[in-house]
Amino acid sequence: xxxxxxxxxxxxxxxxxxxxxxxxxxxxxxxxxxxxxxxxxxxxxxxxxxxxxxxxxxxxxxxxxxxxxxxxxxxxxxxxxxxxxxxxxxxxxxxxxxxxxxxxxxxxxxxxxxxxxxxxxxxxxxxxxxxxxxxxxxxxxxxxxxxxxxxxxxxxxxxxxxxxxxxxxxxxxxxxxxxxxxxxxxxxxxxxxxxxxxxxxxxxxxxxxxxxxxxxxxxxxxxxxxxxxxxxxxxxxxxxxxxxxxxxxxxxxxxxxxxxxxxxxxxxxxxxxxxxxxxxxxxxxxxxxxxxxxxxxxxxxxxxxxxxxxxxxxxxxxxxxxxxxxxxxxxxxxxxxxxxxxxxxxxxxxxxxxxxxxxxxxxxxxxxxxxxxxxxxxxxxxxxxxxxxxxxxxxxxxxxxxxxxxxxxxxxxxxxxxxxxxxxxxxxxxxxxxxxxxxxxxxxxxxxxxxxxxxxxxxxxxxxxxxxxxxxxxxxxxxxxxxxxxxxxxxxxxxxxxxxxxxxxxxxxxxxxxxxxxxxxxxxxxxxxxxxxxxxxxxxxxxxxxxxxxxxxxxxxxxxxxxxxxxxxxxxxxxxxxxxxxxxxxxxxx
Length: 590
What we know:
By secondary structure, the protein is of the alpha+beta class. The protein has 3 domains: 2-70; 116-224 and 308-340, Immunoglobulins (Immunoglobulin-like, Sandwich), CATH 2.60.40; 353-583, SGNH hydrolase (Rossmann fold), CATH 3.40.50.1110. Helices cover 31% and strands 22% of the residues. The protein has 15 helices and 25 strands. It has a 7-stranded mixed β-sheet with strand order 19-20-21-18-23-24-25, with helices on one face. Strands 2, 4, 5, 8, 14 and 15 form a 6-stranded mixed β-sheet that branches. It has a 6-stranded antiparallel β-sheet with strand order 11-12-10-9-13-22, with no helix packed on it. A hairpin with a 4-residue loop joins β6 and β7 (196-202). α2 runs antiparallel to α3 (50-70) and α11 packs parallel to α13 (528-542).
């Protein structure tokens, strides 16, 4: 009877949990709970022995779970501030404090909207890079500019008929560079809201410097991207295979799914609350899911007129012409002390620069180059490095495996691009591990058992002075409302805080987003405008934690190499060098 009483208490606990979960559907809630209670009473009346009791209760709970998983879900109260799609039931309701943080971040990344009178617009009315030259602003004293000062450029955008624009919202990138010195730094763009833009460059090396201003998207193109982000989170869709014995079925999955197409399987993570749904396969239960995969991309999601706003070589990632000259000679610094350089407010907006192809941070990190395998080995000896995220973090894993000659990569019966991956240098006691983040993730096929959320993985780490954690999560969120990304990062942030509370000496490194090549049909699914906003969210989320933020955005914008979602090895090296400099900053030999 003691076992029976214990089981009864557990069943009562389960019923209370179910009642809480199903608050949004009153009639359905009471109907299912009543059926469940009758079923449990029947079982109690027919208990013959302990084994029979376990079998009957297990079977009843299994049936009850399947019943819950297959019912159509009731909607949560709408929580998105800007999203107008069918995602109002997205995940768990946020607390008042979480809603406040979300609102603050949304305000931080708010982008200028088109004047209401200007819609709909034609190509001729949109920003034309060819008609929008920039001009360098001469120094006030006329004697040139010095290292430690700032250079400003003025941009006035015009449309395809050469008429000056009267509103802002264009997405511009800028850099100052000089090829012979292998030097470069990202510029800071200020939108004045009237078609005028000021670009500020910190002058950080002596000699020649050339300015570049790139028009990534017109304000009209950004308006299209905004609409897609807010209303078409289904433009990338996912699938899962369900199988039981010889019978299998593939159904569509996503964060948001229309509920009028059939019952849903709820795969929302119980610990983090991260939402994920699949359509329930006919004749199969929800617990027969085998894998997760990218289904594909929806086509024809923009009109033919809108497609004209995304033309390579015309108005998509096109360099603006210089009105007079784009080159200046930078004179030696007037002040010896770098701290006295007149870089405010740019000092906060510029995280570093390249010189002789080496990244030199300005955010206080003591940077060191790890050019040889022995340099890397010395830093990582007796350390465990756990890497989580997308393929841009997998690049770090692959780079370190290549750099460490005694590193042996183990076959974990996983796909090379998906993972999980593990490599060991037993001579120096170095362990490298990589695992992809949980959905949404656009990898080919991932076993359902390998779909892990970063926050849960962090909660399973003990941490310590020889533990390193590296995180990169951004590229697969480009097609979703930004609120989803804010919430995912906040969940990870709380897990990082828990890790640092129990093991303050753990080195945590967070990699930001970066621009990519935007060919035909790419912008709708992975625009730099999406990535830039995600990068701002990431910075705001982790800025006050004891972690290293690797500024992948500026490291890619400042470099001479073309933008690529997977940066070339030279940039990856700079990122990994920054991580290693942070990990080994307390070593006596550093």
